[in-house]
Design goal:
4-stranded parallel beta sheet; alpha/beta
C-alpha cells in the first residue's frame, strides 16, 4: 500500500477528542483530522495548524505538549469535505454528546455510501443499499 497515510478522523473536538485521543493518536504518528460542530474551534485549529495539550501526571507535574499535523472541518459548513475525508480514512473515532448523534449519523451515512460507491468502482459486485438503510434505521432507533 504505497499510498497509505497514517491519518484518523476524530468526530468531536472536545476534551476527549483533542485531549485524550488526540494525544494517543498523535504519539502514534497519526495526522489528526477533526470534524466538529463548532466553526470557531475549526477556524482556530486550521489557523494555528496545532494546539497545546496540558497533560497532568500523578506526581503533580504538568507536561505541555504541542500537537501539530492537525486540520479540522465543521460538520455543517464543510459538510462535503467532511464526507470526503470520512469516506477515505482508514480510521475514525466518535466522541460526541447525545444531541449531536443525529447530525453525525447523517454525515456518517453519506460517507459510508460514498465509500461503498468508490469501492464498487474498484471491485465488481453489487451494493445493496436497502440493507445499508435498514441498518442505519436500526441504529437510529437505538439512540432515539
Amino acid at each position: 500500500m504505497a499510498d497509505y497515510k497514517k491519518e484518523i478522523a476524530l468526530i468531536g473536538a472536545g476534551k476527549i477528542g483533542r485531549g485524550f485521543l488526540g494525544d494517543i493518536f498523535y504519539a502514534g504518528g497519526f495526522d489528526l483530522t477533526f470534524i466538529t460542530r463548532s466553526e470557531r474551534t475549526v477556524d482556530q485549529l486550521n489557523r494555528q495548524g496545532s494546539y497545546t495539550l496540558f497533560k497532568a501526571h500523578e506526581d503533580g507535574r504538568v507536561e505541555k505538549i504541542r500537537i501539530d499535523r492537525v486540520r479540522a472541518y465543521a460538520m455543517k459548513r464543510d459538510e462535503e469535505a467532511a464526507i470526503e475525508i470520512l469516506s477515505n480514512v482508514n480510521y475514525a473515532s466518535l466522541h460526541i454528546f447525545e444531541e449531536a448523534m443525529e447530525p453525525v449519523a447523517h454525515l456518517l451515512a453519506k460517507a459510508v455510501l460514498r465509500r461503498m460507491k468508490k469501492r464498487q468502482r474498484r471491485t465488481p459486485g453489487r451494493v445493496d443499499l436497502r440493507q445499508l438503510f435498514a441498518a442505519c434505521g436500526k441504529a437510529r432507533l437505538l439512540y432515539a
